[in-house]
Amino acid sequence: MLKFQEELLKVANAQKDYAELADRVEELRKEKENILLTMAEEKNGQSRLKNKGKILKTV
């Protein structure tokens, strides 16, 4: 994503059309956000399973 952001700055500073690059950067930001959300949900699920395992061991 950093590569696209740098390219976007170059194109914008040259006063060329950068709409396509800006769209790509936005797509990558959304993709990153979705990946981070998925990772957080998986971590939460793992934590819940671990806690349930501890409870079952005490029974």
Specify the overall morphology.
rod-shaped
Range of helix content: over 70%
Low-confidence stretches: none
Secondary-structure content class = mainly alpha
Q: For the CA atoms, what is the radius of gyration?
A: 21 Å
Strand fraction:
under 5%
Number of helices: 2
Task: Give the SSE map.
Blueprint lengths: L1 H12 L5 H40 L1
Helix pairs in contact: 1-2
Provide a quick synopsis of the model.
The protein has 59 residues and is mostly helical. The chain has two helices and no strands.
Describe this protein's structure.
88% of the residues lie in helices and 0% in strands. With 59 residues, it is mainly α. The chain is built from 2 helices and no strands. Helix 1 (2-13) runs antiparallel to helix 2 (19-58).
